[in-house]
């Protein structure tokens, strides 16, 4: 696990973008793993800037989002399908048909999740998995005590995660209770992983991930076993290391 500590939050996106580009360089069909949440937004903005400047071409890329809510109308502005379209697919000029998000509205969500996982596995895992971290140490929506060998599946959101995400909805009541998320095993199949975190609110989870024991209490700690995991954080997120 390589840890990069930036002086300010503003430096995190560009530094992380450098790592993502390095991870996919030389790949004719780069496969990206995409996180939602606010943490990777500056990373996506930096990738978009480089695409616009003609320094980066992602037109041949494939992408797989980490997770989606179950029980949300796919047309809802906060469905992850829409968030990914708004923050990644459109600004990076990716082709819609090459970007997949788990289907939380399928008739059989469990079967759709297994198909989704099989599609990633068939590629041998994604080339570069972009990650954020929840304040309770979750990655994707793998909440504490998720199995380290888990694959894409339905999960129940913890009250803390629902509260953390309530800022994207009109009320806590509107926040879905379930989700479908790539498993920790799926994430660990990635060839490389770039995790971004900023702010004091993430400091405890970041410390547990990097310096704590590898434990299901902090799902992100599994990244200590990842052969190419790069953690890009600001000084505030690093303050408990
Ligand atoms: C969300 C997402 C995660 C994300 C995390 C942190 O619920 N499912 O993929 O990394 O929580 O979000 P944020 O970056 O907004 O703090």
Automatic annotation (TrEMBL):
The record's GO molecular-function terms, alphabetically, read: glucosamine-6-phosphate deaminase activity
The signal peptide here is none
Supply the InterPro entries for this chain: Glc/Gal-6P_isomerase (IPR006148), Glucosamine6P_isomerase (IPR004547), NagB/RpiA_transferase-like (IPR037171)
Q: Which residues form the Glucosamine/galactosamine-6-phosphate isomerase domain?
A: 9-224
Q: Which residues form a coiled coil?
A: none
Instruction: Give the EC number.
Output: 3.5.99.6
Q: Where are the transmembrane segments?
A: none
**Taxonomically, which superkingdom?**
Bacteria
Q: Does the keyword Hydrolase apply?
A: yes
Record entry for activity regulation: Allosterically activated by N-acetylglucosamine 6-phosphate (GlcNAc6P).
Q: Which UniProt keywords apply?
A: Allosteric enzyme, Carbohydrate metabolism, Hydrolase
Pathway listed: Amino-sugar metabolism; N-acetylneuraminate degradation; D-fructose 6-phosphate from N-acetylneuraminate: step 5/5
Which CDD domains has this protein been placed in?
Answer: GlcN6P_deaminase
UniProt site positions, description: Part of the allosteric site: 146, 153, 155-156
Q: Is Membrane given among the entry's keywords?
A: no
Extract the SUPFAM superfamilies matched here: NagB/RpiA/CoA transferase-like
Q: Which residues form the active site?
A: 67 (proton acceptor), 136 (for ring-opening step), 138 (proton acceptor), 143 (for ring-opening step)
Q: Which PANTHER family match?
A: GLUCOSAMINE-6-PHOSPHATE ISOMERASE
Q: Family membership, please give it.
A: Belongs to the glucosamine/galactosamine-6-phosphate isomerase family. NagB subfamily.
Q: What does this protein do?
A: Catalyzes the reversible isomerization-deamination of glucosamine 6-phosphate (GlcN6P) to form fructose 6-phosphate (Fru6P) and ammonium ion.
Quote the protein name from its UniProt record.
Glucosamine-6-phosphate deaminase
């Amino acid at each position: 696990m390589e840890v990069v500590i930036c002086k300010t939050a503003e430096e995190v996106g560009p530094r992380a973008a450098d790592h993502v580009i390095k991870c996919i360089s030389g790949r004719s069909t780069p496969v990206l793993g995409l996180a939602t949440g606010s943490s990777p937004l500056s990373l996506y903005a930096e990738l978009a800037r480089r695409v616009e400047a003609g320094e980066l071409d992602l037109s041949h890329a494939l992408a797989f989002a980490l997770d989606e809510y179950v029980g949300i109308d796919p047309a809802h502005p906060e469905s992850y399908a829409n968030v990914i379209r708004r923050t990644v697919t459109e600004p990076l000029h990716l082709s819609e048909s090459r970007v997949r998000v788990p289907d939380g509205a399928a008739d059989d969500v469990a079967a759709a999740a297994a198909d989704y996982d099989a599609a990633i596995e068939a590629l041998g895992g994604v080339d570069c998995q972009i990650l954020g971290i929840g304040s309770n140490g979750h990655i994707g929506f793998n909440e504490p005590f998720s199995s380290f060998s888990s694959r894409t599946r339905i999960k129940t959101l913890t009250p803390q995660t629902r509260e953390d995400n309530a800022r994207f909805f009109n009320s806590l009541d509107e926040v879905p209770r379930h989700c479908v998320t790539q498993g920790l095993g799926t994430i660990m199949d990635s060839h490389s992983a770039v995790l971004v975190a900023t702010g004091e609110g993430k400091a405890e989870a970041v410390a547990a991930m990097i310096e704590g024991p590898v434990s299901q209490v902090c799902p992100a700690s599994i990244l200590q076993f990842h052969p190419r995991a790069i953690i890009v954080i600001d000084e505030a997120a690093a303050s408990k290391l």
